[in-house]
Amino acid sequence: MLRVTKLRYGFPIGLFLCFFLDGILGQVFPEQLFNYPYSMSSYLVVLWLVLSVYFEDPIKIPLGVWAAIAGGIFDLYYTGIFGIFVFVFPIVVALTRACFKAFPINFLSGLLVYFIDITIVSGLSYLGNVAIHITSASFTDLLVYSLAPTLAYNLAVYVILYFPIQRLFSRLKN
Q1: Total domains in the fold of the chain
Q2: Counting C-beta atoms within 10 Å of the first and last residue's C-beta, which end of the chain has fewer, N or C?
Q3: Backbone phi, psi, residue 134, to 5°
């Protein structure tokens, strides 16, 4: 149960900021993120959800619900098609929780789990887009031109933001 703490209000505000920062970064740095044939996707929302799984104890946040809400808004706002991320984000939260039952929670194991999460987000969104005929790119093109740069960018963002977000969560929980 989510007690009345600063986290109750801080978590949705952080999720909302990450949601808009994903779009703002794409608008401010289009040449760096989308330089043909390569494209990087910013998944700050996924980073916020994953780090919330890491740092939520002992306060339990209903992350599955928040992930579905964020996925639905992400779908409608950024892609215009409802349905891909509304399922992908809760899957990532469930996968992250399952991984941390097996791994200790620390920076390096978190980096590995985040690597897996970004790969799954990119792969499932690709499969969803292929299924509804939005993309015709091959799987090889996805790996070389989209997934590799996306992983590099998002893992760098993870390394930069891990400790500040950890401090923010510890402040919000107290």
Answers
A1: 1
A2: N
A3: -85, -30
**Is 1 a domain residue?**
no
3: CB partners within 8 A, 6+ apart: 59
pTM comes to 0.89
The boundaries of the domain holding residue 106 are 6-173
Give domain status of residue 158, yes or no: yes
Q: Cis before residue 90, ω within 30 degrees of 0?
A: no
d(CA 166, CA 149): 25
Q: What is the pLDDT of residues 108-147, one digit of tens each?
A: 999 999 999 999 998 888 888 788 777 777 778 778 878 8
Residue 168 lies inside a defined structural domain of this protein: yes
Asked, for residue 74, whether it belongs to a domain, the answer is: yes
**For a pLDDT cut of 70, what percent of the chain falls above it?**
97
Task: Give the position of tokens 């015709």.
Answer: 136
Q: Are 22 and 78 in contact (CB under 8 A)?
A: yes
62: helix, coil or strand?
coil
Give the Cα separation of 156 and 174 in Å (integer). 29
